[in-house]
Amino acid sequence: MKKRGQADRGLRQSALESLYRAYLQEGLYRGVVSKKSLSAELGAEGAVLERNLEYLLDRGLIRMHKIEDLISITTEGVDWLETDTEAVPAGIISSLERIESLLKALLKESRDAKKP
């Protein structure tokens, strides 16, 4: 079961990267890829491809166009690919440290204001 999950994760990543390349070449709305060409590129078809595309669609990372079988990446998908997942925790830690120092400064200022 775990192997299948890892394979699906890799397939979803590859699908997003393919759609991202189309976005870079043609733009956000014209950068579309057909399901058929995506299937051929990824070597996945049928239920496997559908399951993973549905997952990406549900997460808001891709959009399915009214013209059936055309798929493109969303702004959320672009952000997801372009965001360094390793940097996110570091950014959170940095933000929390700044908040802590601001709170300490406010507390000190409040205490100083109460002194006669």
Would you mind describing this structure in some detail?
The chain has 116 residues and is mainly alpha-helical. The chain has 2 domains: 82 residues, Orthogonal Bundle (Arc Repressor Mutant, subunit A); 33 residues. Helix content is 71%, strand content 8%. The protein has 5 helices and 3 strands, in the order αβααββαα. Strands 1-3-2 form a 3-stranded antiparallel beta sheet. Helix 1 crosses helix 3. It is elongated, with a radius of gyration of 22 Å. The termini are far apart. The relative contact order is 0.12.
What's this, in brief?
The chain has 116 residues and is mostly helical. The protein is 71% helix and 8% strand. Helix 1 packs across helix 3 (46-58).
Structural class: mainly alpha
* Element-by-element helix/strand order: HEHHEEHH
Count of strand segments = 3
The helicity comes to over 70%
What low-confidence regions span 5 or more consecutive residues with pLDDT below 50? none
Determine the CATH topology of the largest domain.
Arc Repressor Mutant, subunit A
Distance between the termini: 68 Å
Arithmetic mean of pLDDT: 85
Gross morphology:
elongated
Features:
116 residues; 8% strand; mainly alpha; single chain; 3-stranded antiparallel sheet; Arc Repressor Mutant, subunit A
Topology:
Layout (H helix, E strand, L loop, with lengths): L1 H25 L6 E2 H8 L3 H13 L3 E3 L5 E4 L1 H8 L4 H28 L2
Antiparallel strand pairs: 1-3, 2-3
Helix pairs in contact: 1-3
